[in-house]
TrEMBL record:
The lineage of its organism: Bacteria, Bacillati, Bacillota, Bacilli, Bacillales. Residues 6-48 form the TipAS antibiotic-recognition domain. Coiled coil: none annotated. This is Transcriptional regulator, MerR family. It comes from the Bacteria. It comes from Staphylococcus aureus. InterPro entries: TipA-like_antibiotic-bd (IPR036244), TipAS_dom (IPR012925).
Amino acid sequence: MNTIADFDDETLCCIAKTYENDTRFKDYFNSYDNQNLASYISEAVNYFLSNENKKDNF
């Protein structure tokens, strides 16, 4: 059975930050010939969710 969790933006940002801070995730993502991929993913998720929140407030 497939279950999809409904996470709030804060939780998603924390998960994305884990990609950057946890060496297991960081090493995995950075193995794709880009030593900054984990940081890029984390920053992109945080940027997107921050802008989505601003858009919802208008």
